[in-house]
Design a protein that fits this description.
single chain, 223 residues, mainly alpha, 11 helices, 62% helix
Length: 223
């Protein structure tokens, strides 16, 4: 367990696994890798990944320099060995290695340097967005996680995190502090997915209707 910038002990409850959560709480790189893996798999699976990877590498932590220099095929095997670390172990192994290579090149392998001296939320968002495998949404979610649970709060961090930075929200891993909040976040995600599917269906229906109307008009004399 480490101490946040606000002086409080960090105790994450994202993986819902004591050993995995302990690693996430003390290892900036493990937290970044967990966020990277949080795609198309349950959140607990994604954030348990760093702990499983460290175990398979015979260590109690992840080291960016070691991962960056690892033989790509051997590193992929660490992901694909059953039980696999991800639904898409091959591509995720490549992304994790690319992330670590970037950290070595830009931050001397120190993951925490990505946010340590960021003066504003916008600057931090820009840095996170530049990480391999991190799009804007993932960068905002991780920024919110840093602010809400790690005490990393440069000026304007909530605004930079967008809706994920809202106090009292249950939108993402940034808001998970235990089983109950995990269920609330999962329910929100399911509702958002259903709403997006409904909106897509309506758009498709409107497009189909418009196309049919245009085709009908074109058949009319003088059309």
């Amino acid at each position: 367990m480490t101490t946040s910038d606000s002086g409080k002990d960090i105790t994450l409850r994202i993986a819902q696994n004591p050993e995995a959560d302990e690693l996430l709480s003390r290892s900036p790189l493990a937290a970044l890798v967990g966020m990277l893996l949080d795609q198309q798999v349950p959140m607990e699976w994604a954030f348990t990944g760093p702990y499983t990877l460290a175990e398979r590498m015979g260590s109690d932590d992840l080291d960016a320099g070691r991962i960056a220099a690892y033989d790509p095929d051997a590193f992929t095997e660490l992901f694909t060995t059953k039980p696999a670390l991800h639904r898409y172990p091959g591509s995720m192994a490549q992304r994790v290695q690319q992330l670590c290579q970037f950290l070595v090149a830009e931050y001397d392998g120190d993951a925490s340097a990505v946010w340590r001296d960021a003066a504003t939320g916008d600057e931090l968002l820009e840095r996170l967005n530049a990480l391999p495998g991190f799009g804007t949404q993932k960068a905002r979610i991780f920024l919110a996680l840093l602010g809400k649970q790690f005490g990393v709060r440069p000026k304007g961090w909530r605004q930079a995190a967008g809706p994920y930075g809202e106090a009292g929200s249950h939108r993402s891993v940034a808001d998970i502090t235990g089983p109950e909040s995990l269920s609330e976040v999962r329910a929100y995600k399911q509702e958002a997915k259903a709403a997006a599917k409904t909106a897509k269906t309506k758009t498709t229906a409107k497009t189909t209707a418009k196309t049919a109307k245009t085709a009908k008009s074109a058949k009319k004399p003088g059309g």
